[in-house]
Each structure stands twice: as structure tokens, then as C-alpha cells.
Amino acid sequence: MSEEKVNIPVIGVVPYLNIDIEDEDSLSERIAMDKTVQAVDIAVIRLPRMSNFTDFNVFELIPGVSLRYVKSMAELKNPDMIILPGTKNTMADLLWLRQSGLEAKIKKQAADGETIVFGVCGGYQMLGETLEDPFSVEEGGSLTGMGLLDMKTIFSKQKTRTQVEGRFSQLDGVLSGLSSIRFRGYEIHMGVTETGDTEPLTHIDIESGLQVQKTEGARKRNVMGSYVHGIFDEEGVAVAIAECLLNKKGLDSTSLKQLSYKQYKEQQYDRLADEIRKNVDMAAIMNILEAGV
């Protein structure tokens, strides 16, 4: 029908598919969904310039865990874990967090020692004492951080891009069950963070395919952060966090199952590929590619 109307060859039509693949940040329906609080409640702060929000999709696969994206004090409520995600502009989003009143609310919940506050990349940078931008990479000048971790971040002209593998440090407190569990992910950020009176969150042993021995991230009691995107994706990490948060409440965690988010994603993309092969003339596509059209 399309060929008849436009007189242009049509190689196929892919039908609407209910497949769970990672969304574009600005287009995802996930962040707009109003979700019911469950036994384990995780709140991700919906920063105006949020990036890499798919870092947290793995929690949606665990029964009894609610993953909510919040942008106001009223929406935050009293979660078991607050996540500050990555951002395209750390300083601007920190100012928004401050002006919205969410910063004061998060600091209050962190002070009670019960709520886990976890920052990833830009969210990690926010947790420190200061952010300095001498080269105007973001806003320029300097900005006081949330003061939850003894560290400072200095933005530089050079961008860090690397893939890493490692393990969590020997942790104490609520997330002690996360100790020594391995993870993998990637770093992509501007700036270097210098830590003071904190303990490292992780130990990196592979960086860009090479063996290394270095510490990464920072933690102090129930506040912690890391530059590693995808740190929750490896099998066992998200489930261990859910188990720890359930155990803190005195709830049964034996029904939680180990899962591989990597395997789950591959299954979803395989389903998508299968449906495209069924509905699209792949031979025509290959001819176009070979002809260089």
C-alpha cells in the first residue's frame, strides 16, 4: 500500500513490539510513571539534566522493589535508598536541587543514618564539599557541594572515558552484604575528585582492558558514591542491595533471585532482531549497504 501511494520501494514495516530495551533519556516513559511504594523503595532524583538513567533499570526486575523517579519533596517521601544520578551539568543541577528544597530533605534523611544515599557520576560529585570549575567547563567559578562526603571535584578540559571492572570494598553498616561483590561498567565524566576523610567504595582491577590496582569512589557510613555507570548491572549487585534493605527492615529476603541484567538485555535485543528479520527485507538492506547507497 505504501509503495502504491508514494511510488518508492518499501523494504518492510516493523510492528509495535512490547520489548524492554533502554530508552533515550529525554523520551522515556519510565521516569514519568507514578509507582506504588513497595517493600524496598528506591527513589532516583529526577534532575533536569539527568543522563544515563538506565543505570537503574535492573532494580525494576526485582519483585518487591519500587524504583521511583522524583522531582519534589512531596514525591520523595521516605525511601530506603536515594540515588543521585548522572547529569549533563552537575553544577546547574545541584543549584536546582538546592532551590527545590530537595537538597535539604536528602541531607536530613542522610543524617538519620537509616537512608542510603548513593551518587553516580555527577550525583557523586554533588555529595562533596566543593565543585570547582576553573576552565568554565560547566558554569565556571566554584560551588559549595552537599557536604555529605569529604571530597572536592575540580572540572578539567579533558574527559575521562574508560571501561572498568572491580569489586566493592569491605563495607560495614546496612550494605555490608555488598562487600567484595564484583561489578563492571564505564566512566565518562569531566573532572577529578580528590577525597579526604572517606573510605573507598570500590577497588578497580581492570581498566580499559589492562590490569590495574586502584581505589575508586567514596563512602562514609550510609552515604556513598562512584563514577562508574552500570555499577548495579552485574549479576548479584542489585539483588544484594535489595536483600540488605529488606534485612534492615526485618523482612524475609530468601525469595530474591540472582539475575543477570546483561543476559536480560541480550534477550530483549534478540527478540527485537528476530522480529525485524521477520518483517523486513534484509536482503534488500544488504544490497543497499554493499552498493554504498
Task: Considering the chains and any ligands shown, give keywords for the structure.
293 residues; alpha/beta; Rossmann fold; 2 domains; six-stranded mixed beta sheet; 8 helices; globular
Describe this structure in words.
- The chain has 293 residues and is of the alpha/beta class.
- It contains eight helices and 14 strands.
- It has helices at 2-6, 73-76, 90-100, 102-111, 122-126, 237-248, 261-279, 282-291, and strands spanning 40-45, 50-51, 65-70, 81-84, 86-87, 116-120, 130-133, 141-144, 151-168, 182-195, 202-207, 210-216, 218-220, 223-226.
Task: Give a concise summary.
26% of the residues lie in helices and 29% in strands. It has 293 residues and is α/β, with parallel strands linked by helices. It has two domains: 25-259, Class I glutamine amidotransferase (GATase) domain (Rossmann fold), CATH 3.40.50; 261-293.
Indicate the topology.
Blueprint: H1 2-6, E1 40-45, E2 50-51, E3 65-70, H2 73-76, E4 81-84, E5 86-87, H3 90-100, H4 102-111, E6 116-120, H5 122-126, E7 130-133, E8 141-144, E9 151-168, E10 182-195, E11 202-207, E12 210-216, E13 218-220, E14 223-226, H6 237-248, H7 261-279, H8 282-291
Parallel strand pairs: 1-3, 1-4, 4-6, 6-14, 7-9
Antiparallel strand pairs: 2-5, 7-8, 9-10, 9-11, 11-12, 13-14
